[in-house]
Amino acid sequence: MTRVLRGKTYVDILYDRRKFGDLEWVTRDWTCAKYRFSKERSPKQIQDEVFGSPRVQHVIKEICDERKMSQEEVTKAAGKILEEMSHNLQLSAIRLFGFLLAKFKKQVYTSIYVNLDGIEQLRDCSVEYPVLLLPTHRSYVDFLLISYVCYHFNLPIPAIAAGLDFLGLKALNLLLRNSGAFFIRRSFGGDKLYWAVFTEYVQNQLSGGEAPLEFFVEGTRSRTAKSLNPKLGLLQTTLELFFTGQVSDITVVPISITYDRTLEEMLYAYELLGVPKPKESTTGLIKARSILRDNFGSIFMHIGDPVSVREFCGKQIDRSLHNLQPRFKFALTPVEQQVTMDLSVHIIRTHQRNLVLSHFPLVCLVMGDHLREERCGATVENVIARVAWLEELVNQTGACITSPDGVTRWDQVQQQICIHSNLFTVTSDMKVELTHSESESTHPSDTFHSLKLSTKVIEKALPYLAIYHYGNQVLQVLVHYAMVALIIVTTNTSCLSLESLFSRYQVLQKIFQREFVFENKKSLEGMLSALEVFQNQEILCHEESRIFLDKTPDSLRWKLNLLASVLSPFLEGYKIACQHLLSSKLVSNPETLSETVKQCQVAVEGALLQGEIRDYRSLSLDILNNCVHNLVKLGAVTKEPRNGQTLVVPNGHQLDIILQDINSFVQDPLKRWPYYSGTLVSSAVFRPKL
To answer: Which of 24, 305, 320, 654 is 20 to 30 Å apart from 290, CA to CA?
Structure first.
């Protein structure tokens, strides 16, 4: 079964699995094209080469000299690291995992769509150069989905960088290792021996070409479904091969994976409220088998156009700089560091442009705005009108909303609400409302006693944070439109110059630089593209570098109000966090960063209970953590070592300036963008036909 979206053909790889036997599929003759310079080594041969490499042996000798340890002792430690880390990729394990995954996916998902042109491009580039597969990371399902797809289409099976915590999956960790997973610590900054073994192992695999290398440029799963700011460690390690001339090029393949419904949706909601993430264990996996009773809709995987590292770098990189030193003593130059960052941001923005989304994230943006105004329910007409307009905007960004031919938008929205019946329901009088039901907790009730929030607030906030998760999927591609809309609706004049607009736009970008991934070199381009779309839709009048706000038709102002409102949970959370940091108690008695974030969350709870703010999404620890980290970056908060701890100390003057900026964008949900005559615009004046 196929679908055509954006002129590209997507094939459902579960369609054949439902018609034909899985055992016959996994035991078929399986071959794939190989990298032209593949050394075709076994996992054991790779380990031996890594262990005997000049880099590892040099560091072993250095540690012996520095710590006065015997070579045998350090060599044994290096061997343990390598043994713990290494994969043991075997086709037999891939076949077994493929069989198990086929059964699981058919039970849980309706379909898994993959774009065929991406498959063919990946097949071609796998032969020419070493390949990095860089998928998005929103669910545990991402982990082996790429391998499943590669096996289905006879593509090289990747070696996958996995966190060391997966070793807690007893019995299953062996199957993961034999399926190509290699396990690395989350952090190992000061461990020279671990760095040497890790670097050599990753580079040896990539240059040897036995398998593509798969890892997540964001570093970890995104609990919020937004793209995270990139983690550069693994990417820098792989690009070192190119910078030092050990390979002529590396091909990077961005892969965007989206889910109609995320397996961990409620787990993420709990985590964002402060409930600790359960440790990965086989017992926990068995307990989670109840998900097999639910319908999680479809998965869309878009394999993006391959990116040549050589072409991306252009003439910026002079590889001859490293010719006069041993390659294992390599250190990135400032230019190479910047290129690595630029490439990582380019990959993440490509992820976003290639997203294939259902209508549900749009419904969540609309309902998030509606719930913030504390209304009982939104009429179907208004929901569909707003979803239709947001879909039009999304299509301007390169991302795509799935819209099958011959199916009305309401039918598609209704289907998604059915999949997410735990969050929304449609009443008999055709209103979309929050589902009022007990959330199925995977946590014991006594877990909440260790939290700083009240149980009542946690229970009320859970569905809001699940809605936040889905809305963020589309917000990340609409953020430029939302920022421009927010500036417009918080401006008190009838005319705004482009220069003033861009100045305010840059302030917002500075506030949200930890929240969204921006291409700083394209800030003006992003703002102007949003203005152009608004002008084409006659929402704004733009003439001679000026924007005339009083010329916006009354019937269209709800559009800018809706877009501006999607940033409110972030701004309100930031506002309360800054106010808390300015309190005299914290100035005189500073705390650790993690404790400060938790105290900011308590302050947000207090603001909600007192009616100062209305949006329970502002309780998200991710929002508050991003706020505090950004304040550190902006110099409004400093880190100071005291008594063996690192404490955060507010800089009152700078913090007050940032709080003023935030306050200038905070909206009262009951006071929407007004007419210039002084009366308020209703957001429900436009009621189109379904």
So the answer is: 24
